[in-house]
Amino acid sequence: MKKLIKQEKYYKWMILGVTSLGTFMATLDAGIVNVALPAIGAQLQVTLSLVQWVVSAYLLGISSFLPLFGKVSDLHGKRQIYLTGMGVFVAGSFLCCMAETIWSLVLARILQSIGAAMLMANALAIVSTAFPGTERGRAMGINSTFVALGSLAGPSLGGILIGHFVWQSIFYINIPIGLVTLLFGYMILPWEKSQGQKPFDYAGAVLFALAMTTLLLVISHGQEWGWRSPLTVGSLLVAIAAFWLFFRCEVRKEYPMIELSLFKNESLLSGTISAMLAYMALFANNILLPFYLDQVLQATPVQIGLVIIRRYPCALH
Questions:
Q1: Cα distance between residue 18 and residue 15, in whole Å
Q2: Average pLDDT for residues 198-226, to the nearest whole number?
């Protein structure tokens, strides 16, 4: 069966379809939860500072594990890590549906983010390998379009599901789609030789995760704890120290988790900074806006989703 699929004229486009669907699901779940935050907070009876971790834990997990699984895939194969990521993402989605407390939901979201990081770290790499140089740019552009589609579809789809069903429905929808993607991925994605002989940068992975986690804690809870409180200052110092040690470690490693020398390329550096600032501006109000629309303007979940989606008019361009 696999040999017949590989002989198909459109085999490389099948690979693009499988990887794009995984990317779409990962980005969809970054935005679909925002509309559900008021409903989740009300049912689990938690404050805004706690319910925001349903979103923050997912984004933190992706940002912490994305470089890690990019390196792991180089050692053990992109196909294996991608398919494992889809299985972990589906398992995390199921646990989100079963969560009865805010912290069990946050832990399930962390598991879900690990799967999403595996998917996002390998999707473009698999596509770039499958397509020749003349078609690679077009294929990667199509895959990136699914990132924008996931961001666009998340709020509106979340509003529809919350408006007609319970909040767990935003996670239930991932399970059948994920299982189908896992099946097609198993049949379609190509095998590749692993590079297991290269050492893994465990120190860099731990330091990067520690730095990102403590920095997000400061940003998320600094006002609640007090910006001059020992907990806030201490967490900030840990974040700064972890980032400094991470950079020192990566520069000295023969096989670093992140190749920092790449940022000597001015185009890559400026593009990365521009993307970071754009996403900061775009997502700054993603947590507060649904609560304002729900509690102040008394908007329905569908209306909340439609308002949020209007903030992305240029996402597909």
A1: 5
A2: 81
In terms of Cα–Cα distance, which of 117, 150, 156 is closest to 30? Answer: 150
- pLDDT value, residue 316: 46
Distance CA 147, CA 141 (A): 10
Confidence (pTM): 0.79
72, 4, 20: which is closest to 185 by C-alpha?
Answer: 20
**Tokens 């779409």 map to which residue?**
24
Domains of the chain (ranges; CATH) run: 2-198+285-309 (1.20.1250.20)
The mean of the pLDDT values for the chain is: 80
Is residue 93 within 8 Å of 77, Cβ to Cβ? no
198-208 pLDDT, tens digit each: 677 778 888 88
Span 272-304, pLDDT tens digits: 888 778 777 766 666 667 777 777 777 777 777
Q: How many CB atoms lie within 10 A of CB 147?
A: 20
Between vectors from CA 287 to CA 283 and to CA 293, what angle results, nearest 5°?
110
Residue 250's alpha-carbon distances to 195, 234, 285, in angstroms, are 20, 24, 34
Is-contact 24 173, C-beta < 8 A? no
CA distance linking residue 174 with residue 186, whole number of Å:
18
What is the structure's pLDDT at 166?
86
Q: What is d(CA 219, CA 235) in angstroms, rounded to the nearest whole number?
A: 10
Cα-Cα-Cα-Cα torsion 61, 168, 29, 109, nearest 10 degrees, comes to 0
Query: For residue 221, what are the contacts with CB-CB under 8 A and spacing of at least 6?
Result: 49, 232
Question: What residues contact residue 104 under an 8 Å CB cut-off, 6+ apart?
Answer: 95, 98
